[in-house]
Every structure is written in C-alpha cells, then in structure tokens.
Amino acid sequence: SLGRQYDLILVMEKHHLSEIGKIAPEARGKTMLFGHWLNDREIPDPYRKSDEAFLSVYILIEQASKAWAEKLAS
Hints:
Blueprint: H1 2-5, E1 9-11, H2 14-23, E2 31-33, H3 51-73
Parallel strand pairs: 1-2
C-alpha cells in the first residue's frame, strides 16, 4: 500500500493531504506539503494559466526543492 511503501509523500495542495488520508490512512503521518518549509505554502497547478503563473509555480517548486534538499541532508 501507498503508506507502507514510502517513507515520505509530498503533495502540492492541502486538499491532497486529506485525499491521501482517505486513500491510505496509514500514510497520514508521512504525508506533507511540498511547500512545508515555505510556511506551509501550497503550490498551485498552473495548467491553463498564463506564462507568468507557470513562472511563479516554477520558482515555488525550485524554492521548495532546495528547502527539502537542505532539510533531508541535515
């Protein structure tokens, strides 16, 4: 199952947290927002949005990736 197979599950939006909890209740404690280290920032889906929205999301993903890499390395 999803919750037993992985040590950490990262999701982009807060409603994904509850959906994972419904699908795999055992995964609740290891599911976190990808933007957790950015003040629990959600990372919106830029699909069908402007180029500016894509750039904004790209920057958020880059920042969140760096923050997770730092936390996981320590």
